[in-house]
Amino acid sequence: MPGFWHKTRTTLEMIKWEHSVFALPFALTAALLAAHGLPAWRTLGWILVAMVAARSMAMAFNRWADAELDAANPRTRNRAIPAGLLSKSFVLGFTAVMAAGLVIAAAELNRFTLILSPLVLLVLLGYSFMKRFTRWSHLVLGLALGLAPAAAWIAVTGGLDPRILVLTAAVTLWVGGFDVLYACQDFEHDRAAGLFSLPKAIGIPAAFWAARLMHLAMLALLAWFAVLFRFATVGWIGIAAVAALLGYEHAIVSPRDLRRLNAAFFTMNGVIAMVFLCFVAGDLWWRS
Asked: Which domains, and CATH codes, for the chain?
């Protein structure tokens, strides 16, 4: 058992489970809007279980699928599987347990979430293979996180409001844009390994412009979302804060200097998600 728990802890460190905060605030935003306030605690609890299980499953499966690629990449060769800290079979077993957790959470929420859970599994697991086939794998990753608000809306209401799909599109472009920037680190490796990415296809400087355009489109979608849900001043201030944080993130990295990319990608993205949630919650309170 000590070995089992050590491996589990190593797995959680490998997948950086604390980064579940990326998509979770957008799911909670949708849940608050769907319920016109705070949903039932039971619903919130199962949404939390589903979100953590979904991301843990997707990240573990990605590390399993990319183990050989990671071993050949100087940036990733020290990850747990290529470094020999975890076996592929253990990580695959962890993936299966998290997948089961997601399906159980979906079943506990409502019938519609359970019916749709295989589609969610397909997107979350399928992303890991997209870089082998298309330069647009970044948007598939974006969709994997972008499903969170739509799924949370269905979890609360048992149905889908087309308006929430605007937030899904915004999150898809937000994550996709930063995955484009993140992929710039692996430009040489992707070219040598025959993998697909936008930086490899169009070059790093052009990839930066593509990411900027994605994030500008994301802000436009957030503005449309605010109109659809009739945000008051507080909500609009939240969108302005997101815009300022995105601008800061783009200011601290450039095609010639990727040293602060991890700070932009991990730390600030978590801040952006939480800021948006807090301002939307404040907007709902202000209007209540």
From this structure: 2-287 (1.10.357.140)
Residues 45 and 131: their CA atoms lie apart, in Å, by 34
Per the CB < 8 A criterion, the answer to whether 256 and 204 are in contact is no
Going by C-alpha positions, the residue among 154, 155, 91, 169 that lies closest to residue 128 is 91
3 state SS of 257: strand
Task: Give the integer Cα–Cα distance in Å for 234 and 244.
Answer: 15
Is 2's pLDDT higher than 80?
no
How many Å apart are CA 80 and CA 134, to the nearest integer?
27
pLDDT at res. 13: 79
Q: Which amino acid is at 36?
A: H
Q: What phi, psi does 257 have (nearest 5°)?
A: -145, 100
Whole-number Å distance between alpha carbons of 246 and 173: 12
Q: Which of 144-148, 216-220, 261-265 comes out lowest in average pLDDT?
A: 261-265
Q: Are 264 and 252 in contact (CB under 8 A)?
A: yes
| Tens of pLDDT, residues 191-200 | 988 999 999 9
How far is it between the farthest Cα atoms of the chain?
57
